[in-house]
Amino acid sequence: MSGSSIFLLGAAGYIAGQLLVSLAAEYPSFAIRALDKDLSPSKVKQLQSFHPKLEVIEGYLADVNMIEAEAKKADIVINVSLVSDMDSINAILRGLKQRGSSGSLSTPIYIHMMGTGLLGDDAFGEFFAPRHIWKSTSKAIGLGSNACELIVEASKTGFVRTMIALPGLIYGVGPGLQRVSLPQRVFLNLASLTGHVGTFGPGRNVMNFVHLKDVASAMLAMLNGALEGKNMSEGENGFYFIASKYMISISDLGTIMGDVNAFQPRAYLKSQADPILTQVVEKVGPLEHASVRIVASAIMSSNQFCRAERLAKEFGWSPRYTESESFFESIPREVEVCVKDLGLEAAFKDAKARSM
After folding, report:
1. What PANTHER family does the database record attribute to this sequence (predicted)?
2. Which of 73-101 are b and which e, b meaning 16 or more Cβ less than 10 Å from the residue's Cβ?
3. What pTM, to 2 d.p., does this model score?
4. Which of 144 and 29 is assigned the larger pLDDT?
């Protein structure tokens, strides 16, 4: 176990930063090769500060030959990058299956990050009482994700062990290069165009939330179980929801974010959370626009009800950081960090002036 190697995709992302810190505490001897794009000396130095045996390699998800080769060399692959990118997922699985079929001492492990957006009910911002509350004991392959189905099929070969992590709405200021979660960043990016924090539809839809550190601890619990040879759920049954019992509506989230900005001297957002107009979304650039559409349709406009029963039953996991660090106290801090990191102060000021 001490000589295990990890290939990590999405190293500069929000989840990866906390995951690397947690891995350094639990597995400081593991060699980690982390994929990222657009590297600079300062970026590499910061990433390497998170783990004592981290090596950063430059590349993109489109570099499928390199990804396949890296996966073939790794005992463990953890993917917290663009988790619906089918070409890179196929490359990972090809590499792992080659390693698993080569007679290596242990079957390689693949942990893939998705999200509870898969539970989306097409509510378009309305609240609908759930017909089904997803539990981790459910056979979640019925969710119909192409990426999930591909990963489950790979597990049936016996050459790779697969687990899929499904966190709810993640909060908490992270230690990594990306310090705030994608949904919060999308909210604020769009707010810089409108002058207020908006919702997708009326925003009455609700979802579970969970602290970033709890997401990392859940993924480590899954990894620990796999490395220790525990009788744990994998493949078709290896879906692990990561969530607390607490929920919030998207309009309430938007209002919290708007209220924070309304009382800051350098921020210029109105406090109410009103629906975002389609023409505003269309103004966002091509890459950001794709993220906005994913967040709006799969996450921010749907209801998502789940329970993390499998994590609790198999590993004794509980969302202890969610209990100790209030969501409602964290979001204002995240707004402050995000406004600064994204350089949105001037944009908010212009948006406010236009809306007056």
Report:
1. NAD(P)-BINDING DOMAIN-CONTAINING PROTEIN-RELATED, PROTEIN YEEZ
2. ebbbbbbbbebbbeebbbbbbbbbbbbbe
3. 0.91
4. 29
Domain count, the chain: 2
Decide if pLDDT at 298 tops 70.
no
Domain, as residue range, for 49: 5-171+209-242
Question: Are 198 and 276 contacting, i.e. CB atoms less than 8 angstroms apart?
Answer: yes
Contact 36, 12 (CB under 8 A): yes
Which residues, other chains included, contact 203 with Cβ-Cβ below 8 Å and sequence gap of 6+?
A: 125, 249, 250, 251, 252, 254, 273, 275
Beta carbons of 125 and 198 less than 8 angstroms apart? no
Structural element, H or E, at residue 199: strand 196-199
Domain boundary among 197, 225, 242: 242
Q: Is the pLDDT of residue 266 over 80?
A: no
Helix (H, G, I), strand (E, B) or coil at 172: coil
Considering the domain boundaries, does residue 316 fall inside one? Answer: no
Is pLDDT at 22 greater than 50 in this prediction? yes
The verdict on 43 and 188 lying in the same domain is no
Contact 152, 162 (CB under 8 A): yes
308 inside domain: no
CATH of residue 23: 3.40.50.720
